[in-house]
Write a structure and sequence with these properties.
disordered N terminus, six-stranded mixed β-sheet, disordered C terminus, 6 strands, alpha/beta, 8 helices
Length: about 250
């Protein structure tokens, strides 16, 4: 990073730190309300997991001016696809679908094979790049704030998740309003408020991604152990929230 870029980023970083402190003292509705009133385009990206359903419920219930988007990768579980329409209906919101480009899928299949992600970390990152990172870039186009369902308890890799941070790669504020919520608090909110959730959660899938890349977890395993389970790296991510070099390259 050049000296000029470092100076230019000091403002957004300080803004994120100040916002982080403000959000810490608010409940979820307050956090989302504050963020939605900051101006600019605010986008919440949902994977339809139980955490994200809590945020969608609050956005819909309080009629907050937040765009809701999902990455319809082409390999999602049928249960996830059904939940998209159920959530839209229950909360009277529109969940914008962002799909991968056919040319990108064809190019990936030609190089690695359609399911080549099982063969190497490089191939898996490339698949995530095509099916998730490039659609995410379109979903966040023109956004000033990106809201996610990240929680500190999801994995060791996310243990230090702040309420707000500056995403230097995408040049926007990234807000994680559930950062301090544990899974029991999430489940209690869902139960108390009749929030629709993916039935796969009840079958041992606490974290749900693409069908070929997700399995149920075993007793005692971390929440995200079922994601890309054939890889040995316990901090594995797709690149949406961790700038893994291979995934970033694949998304360019």
């Amino acid at each position: 990073m050049t000296v000029i870029n470092t100076i230019a980023e000091e403002g957004p970083i300080a803004e994120a730190e100040a916002l982080n402190d403000k959000l810490a003292g608010l409940d979820l509705a307050g956090r989302l309300s504050l963020v939605s009133g900051l101006g600019g385009r605010v986008v919440f990206t949902t994977s339809l997991g139980i955490e994200d359903q809590v945020i969608s419920a609050e956005i819909g219930t309080h009629r907050l001016p937040i765009d809701v988007a999902t990455l319809q990768t082409g390999r999602l579980f049928a249960e996830t696809l059904s939940l998209i329409t159920e959530t839209e209906s229950q909360y009277d919101i529109k969940i914008q679908r962002y799909e991968p480009e056919k040319a990108d899928i064809d190019a990936y299949a030609a190089q690695y094979g359609l399911n080549g992600f099982y063969e190497s970390v490089e191939a898996r990152h490339a698949c995530c790049g095509v099916r998730k990172l490039k659609p995410l870039a379109r979903a966040l186009e023109g956004a000033t704030i990106w809201i996610t369902g990240l929680r500190r308890g999801q994995s060791a890799n996310r243990a230090e998740t702040p309420f707000a941070e500056y995403d230097a790669e995408r040049h926007l504020l990234k807000v994680n309003p559930l950062a301090d919520w544990d899974l029991e608090a999430i489940k209690a909110f869902v139960s108390d408020n009749g929030v629709p959730v993916n039935p796969l959660h009840a079958r041992g899938y606490p974290s749900i991604g693409c069908e070929p890349c997700t399995r149920a977890i075993k007793p005692g395993e971390p929440e995200r152990a079922g994601r890309w389970w054939w890889e040995q790296d316990e901090t594995r991510e797709c690149g949406l929230h961790v700038a893994e070099e291979a995934a970033v390259i694949a998304a360019q």
